[in-house]
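Sanity check

After download, print the first record. It should look like this:
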Amino acid sequence: MTRALTDLPAETVDVVARWNPTAAARLASGPEFRHELFVAGPRRAGKSRLIDGLRELDASAFDFVDDPLDAGVVLMVLDAAAPLGREELSVLDVVTRPACPVVFALTKIDVHRDWATVRERDRALLAGHAERFADVTIHAVAAGLRGAPTRESGVEALLAALLSAADGQTREARSGTERVLEQTRRMIVATGRSIRETEAGADLRAERARLLAHRDGQRAERVARLRSQVQLGKVELMHEVSSRIRAAGAAVRADIDRAGRTELADYPDRLADVVKKLSADLDGVVTTRLDHLRARAGVAASDAPGTVPPPDSTVPGRPEPRHRGLEDRMTILIGASAGLGLGRLVVTPLSVVPALDIASIPLTLTLGGGVAWWLARARGHIAERSHMRQWATESLTTVRAQWEQLVLGRLLSAEAQISEMILAESRSRAGEVDSRVAQIDGELRGLTARRNGQLAACDRDLAAIDRGLREISDARREPKHLPERQST
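Expected structure tokens:
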């Protein structure tokens, strides 16, 4: 006993209408038993011409399907050019089922004269391949004939064999409704498998992992890199300060060695101007270095907080007056002695003349005093130069300390400012990442809920199809009510 689709539960009919509307419409528009045919065979075996010939004979005899699992009968097409081989046997194994009848057709007999020998060879090979094909019949067909198929072409005999096999399959096996239900079931199972195998939200999970890996904007790496750059800048700037102080000291000593008394008196002001100019140059070098430091730290110089201009490095006051000591007195004494000796040497010729002997005494004293004065003055100038040189060296040492303090202070201030900016950027980045991660989590939950809903819907539809199949199976197993034997 078979059942129509409309006799099944309403939920089963609804599932079939949603998943397989074409088959449902076919069952609703025609009789329940429909012959579904699948045509298989190797390439260039004449399948298309054979299908056209069958349709010309009876267009409504079969529904040609694309899936062998939906077919009630399989037509295996063989080529008369040569006996079948591995390709034909592999195709046959794929498209046939144990309960599905198979009808064999040998095409192109109008082209190849030894087709009868090929058919016998094919029959022997099929018998050796499977026991079910031991007594198989291979129908010879001239599918290449032009015009409508005739009795001589063998298409009519093939059609009759296909109809006979289809009718027997319909009576002994499944109804068209059952085939539609199984076809719909395969579609639902394939869709559920595809949903399970497809990982929903893979791109979102990858984005989420990438965002969490760099949530703080690589704050630790940037801070560590900043510290190393600060240490490198400290070494370079200290070297720059030392080289500038050495160059200034050499220039100052050379200037003092060539300076006269007037130049020595004005040299503190000149040294202050030199130090001021060098301080301005050094400030430019430090500023350039700090800009490079900000750029390497990923912080724009225009975004950095304004810094207070550094104080000018000045010379610490003027030198104290040089105190005259024992050396100056000894210089005067030595100068006077040398002057007197030189005066006596000069006036010695005058002592020959008695009248000029008395005049030589004041002349000797005058010359001695003059030489003593000059020697004392020269000794004082040399001492002033030495005093100024010592003062300049001490002043440059003080200026160097001021420059080093200035450089270290600006470096530490810049490091603190850049660190604060990195922390602010990290906090902002972390907030943006947390917001995006929360959004991704919401999307993933939505995808998971949608996926679970789709799987649950597939399970419900499978359960409805299975209930319909069980009802068909139960109806087939119901005993036929035979008329009771009348007792006489």
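If your output differs, re-run the checksum step. Summary of this record's structure: The chain is about 65% helix and 5% strand.
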